[in-house]
Amino acid sequence: MGYQTMDSEICPTFKKKETQFGTPEIKGNLHLDEKYINVKGKYCYDLNVIDRKTKFVLSELFVRQRTISKCKTLLNKIKMWCYQQIMLLYRQGLTVIKFVADNFSNYHTAWKRILARITTMDAGVPITCKKYGLHHNNNCIERYNREITRRMDAIDVFQTFDGAKDFFALRTIVYNYVNPHNSLKGKTSAEAAGIILDLGQNKLLSLITHARKIEMTLK
Questions:
Q1: pLDDT, tens only, 25-59
Q2: Counting runs of H as helices and runs of E as strands, what totals does the chain give?
Q3: What separation, in Å, do the N-terminal and C-terminal C-alpha atoms of the chain show?
Q4: What angle do CA 169, 45, 139 make, to 5 degrees?
Q5: Number of C-alpha atoms within 13 angstroms, CB side, residue 22?
């Protein structure tokens, strides 16, 4: 129960103000996928979009069902947060942002309604696809999900939907801003994406402090 109490203080404030910390630079393909999560005997879904190169999770959403509406909500955060960057690349004719997803149709439908005009999508991409002649696969999001699986082996099952929702929101915060990534030479995903915050040694506490200051400033 401890993490649920802490999350109730951290996650709503941070998630609402996160865009005030800066805009993550998109450097690679954006991979979409979900993880099945057992909540008191019923399966829910943790949806994520992660940058292949920076490992930054640009959007996370915990849902009971993967409806088109929820998938649109997942992608709308990226549109709100990174639209100017994506549009600039599109207008300059430089690297066009590409989404990569499996064959779940609601991802593709949501993308068509939100970002299809200025981005591209490869749908139906399996974990490995060298045999299809593609130069990318969906491994980076699968590796992220395997880390979730390891955590779930210890927790076993969540008792409430809200508890699970807060847990995964906090997990994303820690993953992006607190924990250094081995493949990024000790940088956090946020640092690799160009979001540089002076957080000191206690990064999570500093994030909470920053979020509170932003909240007070915007009131």
A1: 999 999 998 988 989 889 999 999 999 999 999 99
A2: 7, 5
A3: 31
A4: 85
A5: 15
CATH of the domain at 198: 3.30.420.10
| Predicted structure pTM score | 0.83
What would the pLDDT profile of 132-144 be if each residue is shown by its tens digit?
A: 444 544 556 666 6
Nearest-angstrom CA–CA distance, 10 and 212: 9
Alpha-carbon distance 211 to 105, whole Å? 36
Residue 114: is it exposed, middle or buried by C-beta count within 10 angstroms (0-12/13-18/19+)? Answer: middle
- Tell me which residue range forms the domain holding 144: 2-218
Q: How far apart are CA 62 and CA 34, in angstroms?
A: 9
User: Are 136 and 100 contacting, i.e. CB atoms less than 8 angstroms apart?
Assistant: yes
Per the model's pLDDT, the better-predicted residue between 103 and 76 turns out to be 76
Contact 204, 5 (CB under 8 A): no
Which amino acid is located at 71 in the chain?
A: C
Which pair of tokens denotes residue 145? Answer: 């999900």
**Rounded Cα distance, 212 and 11, in Å:** 11
Nearest to 28 by CA among 92, 116, 122, 105: 122
Number of structural domains found in the chain: 1
| Dihedral pair phi/psi, residue 22, rounded to 5° | 130, 170
